[in-house]
Amino acid sequence: MDKFPRVVIDSLLEFIDFDAKIYGKEGDSRKSIFIFLSNSATRIIDGEVYKHIYESQKSRDLIRYENLKHLLREAAFNDGIKFSGLRHSEIVRKSLINYYIPFLPLQKSHILQCINAYIKKYNENNENSLYKIDLNLSDPEKNRIIDEMEYSPEENPLFSKQGCKTVEEVVTTASFKY
């Protein structure tokens, strides 16, 4: 959503607004689900999670939605490029978004989960292959992959910059033994 021009986003009002008329007919937005993805609050979410983990010395898993929801709505409305995304959009102004779900930044333990999930998926998909070759990595190999990923912030690298996006390629490449 942060890449869309605001006029495009606001054109969705007739489908989302509670008393909207769609093409001259009464619409019922309660029968529709719209999912909007946006990166506009990434900086704010990362900052709050960083404070929670580093300054408060608490686990990321203890962050509650209630602690972030007001920040997410505010970020959606005020963050981003002047004429794009949800910034100053009618959808946010009219409180038509029911939930703002934060995607929390991933730490090294989460990257390990991504690696293990990919290996499991790869091996399950390869089960019926004529040339069945299991993908296996030792713990030191997995740790090397984790350590090679990029993390932020620079002064205290806690969060993966790519999340799980590049894990598949890195794991597949690391599994080739010469």
UniProtKB/TrEMBL annotation:
Q: Which residues form a coiled coil?
A: none
Q: Which GO terms describe its cellular component?
A: cytoplasm
- Torsin-1A C-terminal domain segment(s): 110-168
One Pfam family this sequence matches: TOR1A_C
Q: Name the domain of life.
A: Eukaryota
Matching InterPro entries, A to Z? TOR1A_C, Torsin
The protein's name: Torsin-1A C-terminal domain-containing protein
**Which organism was this protein described from?**
Panagrolaimus superbus
